[in-house]
Amino acid sequence: MRLLTATVVSLVAFLAAPATAQKMIGGNPGPAYNYVCPNADGAPPLDCYFDAVRHLYTMCRHVKSIEIIEWGFEKAQEGINDAKSSSCIEKQRGNMAKPYQAALKEAAISRQAVDGVRSLNEAWQLALGSLKWRPGESNDDYLTRTVSPYMDFEERIDGIRLIVETVRARVTPATGTQTAKAKAPATKAAAPKAVAASK
After folding, report:
1. What is the pLDDT of residues 157-178, one digit of tens each?
2. Is residue 93 a contact partner of residue 39, using CB atoms and an 8 Å limit?
3. Residues 40, 46, 51, CA angle at the centre, nearest 5°?
4. Per-domain residue ranges of the chain
5. Beta-carbon count within 10 A of 113 CB
6. What are the Cα distances from residue 61, in Å, to 6, 24, 56, 103?
7. Residue 158 to residue 156: CA distance in whole angstroms
């Protein structure tokens, strides 16, 4: 309970901080970028997306925890009591759009990797939509259910990384020597014309 309360306090402090203070999260001057993937500052698109999956889910999970602390499990679902978490989910889905598209572009070297990114996005969307308490669910059951997506995320992320790394390892770029050999015949063929012209 103390840990949850500390988390809530930290989250409230972050949300209340002025925009100028939030700009340097992750060390990058772009507040939107930093907010989405603060632990992958300057990293490739896939790394940013993977971090965003974890980070943005955590943000909305914490917001939902605030509502539960304030209203209790049952009442947290009534009327406008869940307005904050609903707004968080809508906002983070919008924030995820660009990182998701960038991740798909980087994963395009493999159809399997692209499918993996899409599957991860579906799992993330489902996890966000499942943050609401279910009637009859105990506190422990709720916590277990809302923590389990992290393990699913990591398994999917590891699978995508393995596919991408394997494909990249099998792709051998053309060397400078190979390129030079390919151009050599054209150079020799042009030589006789130059001699004839000199006569």
Report:
1. 999 999 999 999 998 665 554 5
2. no
3. 40
4. 2-198
5. 24
6. 14, 23, 9, 23
7. 5
Give the alpha-carbon dihedral of 96, 97, 102, 108, to 10 degrees. Answer: 110
Residues in the chain where the model's pLDDT stays below 50: 1-33, 177, 179, 186-199
Joined together, the tokens standing for residue 94 give: 């919008």
Task: Give the C-alpha separation, 68 to 130, whole Å.
Answer: 14
Cα pseudo-dihedral 44, 46, 52, 54, rounded to 10: -120
23 near 34, Cβ under 8 Å?
yes
Mean pLDDT over each residue of the chain, to the nearest integer: 79
3-class secondary structure, 74: coil
Q: Please give the DSSP secondary-structure letter assigned to residue 131.
A: -
